[in-house]
Write the structure tokens for this entry.
Amino acid sequence: MADLPALDVLLPLDSPVRHLAPRADEAELVALFAEHASGPLVRANMVTTLDGAATGADHVSGSINGPADFRVFRVLRALADVVLIGAGTARGERYTALDVPAELRAARAAAGRADELELAIVTATGELPDRLLDSDRPPLVLTTGSNPALGALRERVGADRVLVADGGTPGAVDPRAAVAALTGRGLVHVLTEGGPTLLAQLTDADLLDELCLTWSPQLVGGPAGRITRLPTWFEPSRALTPLHLLHADGVLLGRWRVARLGA
Ligand SMILES: NC(=O)c1ccc[n+]([C@@H]2O[C@H](COP(=O)([O-])OP(=O)(O)OC[C@H]3O[C@@H](n4cnc5c(N)ncnc54)[C@H](OP(=O)(O)O)[C@@H]3O)[C@@H](O)[C@H]2O)c1
């Protein structure tokens, strides 16, 4: 863990600054992220540059994240039942079946999570990389009943791993039906790692409880989009309340509670 930075806890403001040194089991960081997160939860973990880009010039997030972000990323995964992503992220960010590092498994078990961390992918086309579809631990695939690839998907990943989540928009997965399909399988601690299209839909559908967002201290310019991509504005815009703010080497890592409109 020597190559990872200590994290300064800057928020809440009424507490003295603490330094969370890296440690194999990340016990302090696990405790911090488990706070205020006991029940079912849809949490997002994203990274942005200071000029608002969701990717760098490499068109993925690899060039804008770093070791501080990695510490939180691992802990958030360890506390999740399922990582939920859009197919664009599965394709672009080269996802494979997910493993929780051995040193975080005790914390995961203590939090009541199953041994295996599931990966769930939202897709209309079903065009997912072979490395995922042919894996011996294939993802859950959330798609529509009208997807022409439905039968082929069922054959490749198993019928019980293809979840039809139709809703109001023909040809599109309904975010509410998607989250309900996961929670129906007992996957109630949902961690979405994006991308921007999926995150925007989850937010718009009033499903997001928490946003964990890393600001990478870079300006990248370029045509990159933001962490939410939707042709329309959120109506109303969503209000967030800070839960904590971490810092390491100029990188700021925030965690906010999202006020659900329907709450
Ligand atoms: N900064 C960050 O934290 C972060 C995180 C993740 C990704 N990214 C970046 O974001 C970029 C990808 O962005 P993106 O917005 O395209 O990613 P995305 O949301 O992961 O993927 C979009 C794709 O997901 C599927 N999808 C999403 N909503 C759907 C719905 N309601 N119904 C059916 N299918 C749905 C569709 O797949 P099909 O085309 O298969 O139908 C759609 O083309 C990449 O460059 C990636 O590196 C950044």
